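Propose amino acids for all 176 sites.
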């Protein structure tokens, strides 16, 4: 981590931790890394490490969570998002992050399910998740070898099933 980012995080934590300054508000973000139900406990654990931040609720199906913190301390909404994202990444060893809620209407998105097989641990599921989630046009994704599938909610004007499958194969994920 660069000194600049580390210093920014330290300032954010100091401001958020100052008694009497917290004027929290609830903000909903899409959570990256929330790819299987078992990860909800991991998210709660990571947020518990973040001073002056509360996790209000999680919507696993939408990969969204409501957080209670004072976003105004960061300045503009985009600055708050970036700072909060860095704090969450640091608290979770870079396995979670946040981004703005999707602006694409739900009726314009398509759900793709890809059957997979192989290891059933969280790490293997994370590999599969990251293979598809980082593709342009993927709004949400899940991955669970226990369930035997990877799902992706996509914008079909930007990506398709073939690109998802190619990305999975490139990462060594076995398709059924």
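Proposal:
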């Amino acid at each position: 981590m660069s000194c600049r980012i580390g210093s920014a995080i330290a300032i954010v934590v100091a401001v958020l931790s100052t008694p009497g300054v917290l004027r929290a508000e609830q903000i909903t973000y899409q959570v990256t890394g929330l790819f299987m139900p078992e990860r909800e406990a991991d998210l709660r654990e990571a947020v518990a490490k973040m001073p002056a931040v509360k996790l209000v609720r999680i919507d696993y199906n939408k990969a969204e969570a409501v957080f209670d913190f004072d976003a105004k301390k960061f300045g503009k909404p985009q600055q708050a998002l970036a700072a909060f994202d860095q704090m969450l990444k640091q608290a979770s060893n870079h396995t979670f992050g946040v981004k703005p809620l999707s602006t694409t209407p739900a009726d314009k998105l398509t759900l793709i399910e890809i059957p997979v097989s192989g290891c059933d641990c969280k790490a293997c599921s994370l590999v599969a998740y990251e293979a598809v989630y980082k593709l342009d046009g993927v709004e949400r994704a899940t991955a669970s070898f226990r369930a035997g599938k990877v799902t992706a909610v996509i914008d079909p004007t930007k990506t398709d099933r073939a690109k998802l499958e190619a990305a999975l194969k490139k990462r060594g994920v076995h398709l059924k």
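The longest helix spans residues 3-17. The two ends are 39 Å apart (CA to CA).
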